[in-house]
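Exercise: predict the fold of this chain.
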Amino acid sequence: MINIWFDGWFSSAYNIISGIRNNPDNKPVKIFGTHYKPMGYEGLCDKWEFRKDFIEDEKYYGDYEESYSRWALDFCEKNKIDIFFPRRYFEIISTYADMFEYTENGKCKKTKIMLPNKNLLAILDSKIATKHFIMDNYSEEIVAPTVLFSSIDQVESFKRQLNDMSFPYGFLCMKPNCSTGAEGFRILNYPFDAYRIRDILRKGKEGGYILMPYLDGEEISVDCLNTKKGLIAIPRIKKNNSRVQEIKLDKNILNIVEDINSLLVNKGLDVPYNIQFKKHFDKLYLLEINPRMSGGIYLSNLTGINIPYLAIKQALGEEFDLPKVNEISVCNVERGVII
């Protein structure tokens, strides 16, 4: 029996957990789920617990990091967790990664955390740091440029960056430098009220914000897992004004992903991750590299390639052949479930 823990996930975990349970090897798993509020996948978990919401602002009062790390380490020890899929608190988890272990039958076992190592996580968790990492290490001309990213931390620097940006993109957008999903993302209509930006910046966000052109084109999400036999990369192209996504093996996209993957593997990456691109006038722009599974990875699983389960097999040292990606169209369909 493999003990697998999902903490703090969105409702999309329902589909990910379903895929792990219905794995092709019929491998028995025990799923643990924790969150501070109902998320809809409780019914799929063998054990579900409500926890407190470890408010990130509490770090200013010296309580946040200590309370979450103590709780997470205790949970892992108590439940003998083999595989841990976190969704938040990455910095804390990576700091205490070596302490996630438990004793069973007199032997010490380590929990495999599905996050990159601490040094690589520090790069990928920041969009600005990711930009510099790619630009400094990419061996060829940047074909997925991130050079238009600019950091802003106050209104005056924001105005200065705006004046320096002379490009034919129309709209601008801003987002936190360290964030997940669409958290804090705003499209800015030009010209716009600088006082609105001031109010946003005054609220503060660790790592600051970035300002960039709003790229109005196809969004491409690539779910990735590097294996001993090669890279699994599944590009999902999100069609504009549609919920349909095409899984298409575009050679240009895959070549860039292969290059980026080589850089990350050299830094010790051995867990699932996700790369986000945006196409603008047929040119690809690298938006970010997410150091975790995407919330929509279950759509990639519809190809028959179950990346979360293959990541578990790899973490357990089990061999498997490199699967073939089939080109299909997929769509997320809302449905009700009994919880």
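Check your answer against the key: The longest helix spans residues 64-79.
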